[in-house]
Amino acid sequence: MSLEEPDPRSRDVGETPEGTVDYDALEALLGETALDREEHVNATAFVVRPDEVQEALNALRDEAGFDYLSNVTAQEYADRYESIYHLKKYDDPTQEVGVVVPTVTDAPVSQTAEPVYRTADWHEREAYDLVGIEYDGHPDMRRILLPETWQGHPLGSDYNPEKPQVVPFREHANPLQPDSRGEGAESDTMFLNIGPHHPATHGVLHVKTVLDGEQIADVEPDIGYLHRCEEQMCQQSTYRHQIMPYPDRWDYVSAGILNEWAYARAAEDLADIDVPEYAQVIRTMSAELCRICSHMLALGTFALDVFGDFTAVFQYAFRDREVVQNILEELTGQRLMFNYLRLGGVAWDIPEPREDFFEMVRDFLDGLPEKTTEYHNLITSNEIFQVRCVDTGELPPETAKQYGATGPVARGSGVDIDLRRDDPYGYYEELDWDVVTEDGCDNYSRVLVRMREVEESAKIIEQCVDLLAEWPEDEREIQSNVPRTLKPDADAEVYRGVEAAKGELGIYMRSDGTDTPARFKIRSPCFCNLHTLREMTEGEYVPDLIASLGSLDIVLGEVDR
Amino acid sequence: MSSESEKLHDTVSTQDARMGDGVDSRFNSKLREAFGSTPFILTKFDKFMNWVRGNSMFMLQFGIACCSIEMIHTYAIKHDLDRFGAGVPRASPRQADVIIVPGTIVSKFAPRMKRVYDQMPEPKFVVGMGSCTISGGPFQEGYNVIKGAEEVIPVDIHVPGCPPRPEALIYGIAKLQERIRNGETSPVTVKPYELEEFGDLERDELVRHLADRIDEDDLVMRYNWADSP
Ligand code: SF4
Q1: What CATH number should be reported for the domain whose range is A23-136?
Q2: Is B201 an interface residue toward A (CB < 8 Å)?
Q3: Bridge-partner residues for A547, per DSSP?
Q4: pLDDT tens across B31-84, in order?
Q5: ipTM (interface pTM)
Q6: CA distance A483 to chain B (A)
Q7: Mutate to test the pocket of ligand 1, among B68, B74, B104 (most ligand atoms within 8 A of CB)
Q8: Is residue B103 within 6 Å of ligand 1 at its C-beta?
Q9: Cis peptide before B111, with omega less than 30 degrees from 0?
Q10: Of A163, A108, A145, nearest to A231 (Cα)?
Q11: Ligand 1 contact, B131 CB (< 6 A)
């Protein structure tokens, strides 16, 4: 870990001995390519000409060690388009830098970053789809979220939402049809649609698969069947109250508070709001409860996928989810869409009588070890399960980094990144817990990481409950003083991520001085993780595709936003 | 226990068990009493079919968005929809009687949902779950969101909530069962969005513009956002 004792020999260009970024050194490294410097709330950004993107990114990746393209934000100003590449390091995600690429308004074209970071492929397609910037040299410049015949770019300024649209229904005309994508006329590959209505895709994902016998020759996830315009909704809502309900609906498998925290953290940094310590402890506790809930669902549905078992494991996982949901309902008033965090704190305190609430949480935690053993007996030590999961869906760590994978997917490939520890927020720094990694790089490791993370979360919750129970009564401040209408400074920009259930959930926001954001961009972990599917499954068997898809644990609400 | 049951088998013939006091109350139910000694009832065939239909519904396993999580909870342990004779999830629409639409429908998905609905055999019933299927819910103003399931398929029961609690969904389904048993059908609504062949669309500016990208006989759905509710 680079946070402890940075080794001077392996320090990157632009890294200070304290492990922070020396932006002057980076500017020197970029030399002529850096036209200008911009200060964002989270990091400094360099302005780069649209035809020198790859040069700048290559220098930053190879010389300065920024091996993680966390997000690409595209937006339209009155006089220009802009793509922002948010770079980080897997070793130390607090070291950040932005690369801003402005392009002209008529025919905005900018060089693609795909050869430098594979993950840019999908990010840039999304930018093209929603905002309308074209990326020169991109291998596959098509729409990604909206139907291919859509007219206009909805987040661009001249979009008219009243205009009619025609959406074709082609792919599904005949689900089993001969395919000519293989070489030669006598090729015997077959094209197979999996989804968008299919029990194993965990929602409305469509996977276009080309099979050679039972092996997968090509696979392409087709997403956008749940593109609910989340970014537009947030852009037309006010910071203070209206945005907060939406995060609950991104990753909706009870991971609500983790998502809310992503927005809360970004907005609090943008508007410079403090959060009382007591509220941070409550946030930490409730967020970890959500993580348990979410991992339980991942486990239950994964077992459903690989065993085809609608009974034992699935029902056990749901039994435990019910318990956690009851606790969360006690705390927040809702089972699924909590809307519990507020800017500057949480909505209300632990319900009275407090002892009963703590008792409820402790009961759950006490029973957990036994349940975990049960799960291990039923799942991980099950021979069928192992045959299906060990050494299938392999994702080597270097590939995972290229695709910007985070969360259990990255940690299952031995990439040691967890923002709770590496970029601390909330109360995590003060607590005693470990980051779980596994080096198997296969489906089995990813499932194991989730199961072990449940235990770590339980550790965190236990400590939080102890802290809260002891907290002196007159210091229980749940919200700091935040103005009723929040108007952050014009042109302030921020990108902040938190460790959600599936990985780094990041929010980019730009303020224009009003009480709604001028641009609100969601960096979804599932979106990037799903992008790795092709790497994991090409050449493998169809059943392994289903297992791999399950082990990625995607939520379509977050993939499509 | 086993010796006891053996004894029962030895001593009581099946006929006796049915006609006499019987071994357990199942054989002497209230219904049985009402029938007297004739195990026949007279009813209308339609009525009988409705009663059967309402008590054995196969649900389509169909998840869209957030509401589907609560829908899974409704099927799963604790809420256990199966108690009410309506909890066998079917993966194929061809085997299902009821489709619960649990979530936001967007432009890309609506044609698919329509197709899935069309694939279900008659008689079929639709339960719209959540605000999104009523009006688009929290995403009503979205550029890509269909303003309710009724724009695409007819809906028998609406369950409001965002998301509705499992209890609410169970109530909705119980109400649907009641309606089916009584032989009520839902009014047919005029659906603004239909699947049609591209060649049949009115040739306005948009259609002419897309003419070289969509074949004449491709099925399409045309959205008139301006007229949406
Ligand atoms: S009604 Fe609410 S919970 Fe249900 S799908 Fe819509 S947004 Fe999600």
Answers
A1: 3.30.460.80
A2: yes
A3: none
A4: 666 666 666 777 888 888 888 888 888 888 888 888 888 888 888 888 888 888
A5: 0.84
A6: 25
A7: B104
A8: yes
A9: no
A10: A145
A11: yes
